[in-house]
Design goal:
The chain has about 325 residues and is an alpha/beta fold. The chain is built from 10 helices and 13 strands. It is globular. The structure holds oxa(dethia)-CoA. Oxa(dethia)-CoA binds next to helix 2, helix 6, helix 7 and strand 12.
Length: about 325
């Protein structure tokens, strides 16, 4: 018998404030046309003043619990993927644990920037298959609007805020690829590329800092590495691209999403795309896309999904799961 980490519920939360590309034309020297054609982004959501990453994560978690028909007291562990925790510590995960009224179990953050949700899912799966937790809430929650340098048009138009969450539950599987749940994972990082995408602040500077990115270079790595990690994860599960129903990619740039699908020899009809509405929400983008993809009727029980993401570090990876 094989223990599998099966998706029991999914949910998301997006802050109310929607900012269209045209709204940004008044802020920096940009155009709706440039943003749309270079990135595929049309609008993004921004948090309200006083609204925190933990607030967003809590609302997404509550939606996922409702979808699963479970309560916070049914959960053994919370893992939050975020690079925008509201405080150096405590973790966003413990803040969300408190807000949910969950008084047992454990909670911690995972920081792998835009690849964070893939890293968090892999950690959750490890806890489940080794019997350390039966039900794990895996959350991606970000407020990247707070890391923007509003004078840098090369970055400030690309990012948005939001949160998504999954409830994973231990279920018995047969050990075959017909099982529901996580079938394989693949994680990578290479710190030689730390200067391509980083925040120029933190405890060493006494300031939060701003996001800095060599967009073209990150783009080049993304196109190469995302298809590769997806293929590696599929090979670990003894599957190929031909078995995939949905690619659920990190939503950074439609051109990266298209190039990755092409390298995987899959048509865009098999890709869940939300980048036009959310922008790049870093670690929140995959759970947001899973939740929206399900709500749209795209993702159905039994579908084979591959998620893939890359971000600062560089860190990148993929997860193969049957919904
Ligand atoms: O989630 C983590 C991973 N992050 C990513 O995957 C992001 C990867 N990178 C990208 O998505 C793309 O590289 C960008 C969307 C950031 C940029 O697209 P690009 O096609 O690589 O454009 P570029 O950086 O080469 O810029 C082309 C031109 C430049 O002008 P010149 O030097 O050619 O005259 C920029 O100054 O576009 C200019 N530009 C802008 N123009 C209008 C840069 N930002 C803007 C802007 N509006 N917002």
């Amino acid at each position: 018998m094989t223990i599998r980490s099966v998706v029991k519920g999914v949910g998301h939360y997006l802050p109310d404030r929607v900012v269209a590309n045209a709204d940004l034309e008044t802020l920096v020297d940009t155009t709706d046309e440039w943003i749309k054609s270079r990135s595929g982004i049309e609008r993004r959501h921004y948090v309200a003043e006083g609204q925190t990453t933990a607030d967003l994560g809590t609302l997404a978690a509550q939606a996922a619990l409702t979808d699963a028909g479970l309560q916070a007291s049914d959960i053994d562990a919370i893992i939050v993927a975020t690079s925008t925790a509201d405080f150096t510590f405590p973790s966003a995960a413990t803040m969300i644990q408190g807000a949910l009224g969950m008084t047992r179990g454990f909670a911690f953050d995972v920081q792998a920037v835009c690849a964070g949700f893939v890293f968090a899912l892999t950690n959750a799966n490890a806890l489940i298959v080794t019997g350390q937790a039966k039900r794990v809430l895996v959350i991606g929650a970000e407020t990247f609007s707070r890391l923007m340098d509003w004078s840098d048009r090369g970055t400030c138009v690309l990012f948005g805020d939001g949160a998504g969450a999954l409830v994973l539950e231990a279920q018995d599987g047969t050990g075959t690829t017909a099982d529901r749940g996580i079938l394989a994972t693949d994680l990578n990082s290479d710190g030689r590329y730390r200067d391509l995408l980083y925040v120029d602040g933190g405890t060493s500077t006494g300031k939060t800092g701003y996001l800095r990115m060599e967009g073209k270079e990150v783009f080049r790595h993304a196109v190469e590495k995302l298809a590769e990690t997806a293929h590696t994860a599929l090979a670990k599960a003894e599957l190929t691209s031909a078995d995939v129903d949905w690619i659920v990619p990190h939503q950074a740039n439609i051109r990266i999403i298209e190039a990755t699908a092409k390298r995987m020899q899959l048509p865009m009809e098999r890709v869940v795309v939300t980048v036009q509405d959310h922008g790049n929400t870093s670690a929140a983008s995959i759970p947001l896309a899973l939740s929206v993809g399900k709500a749209r009727g795209q993702i159905k029980p039994g579908d084979l999904l591959v998620t893939e993401a890359i971000g600062g570090g560089l860190a990148w990876g993929a997860v193969v799961l049957r919904w």
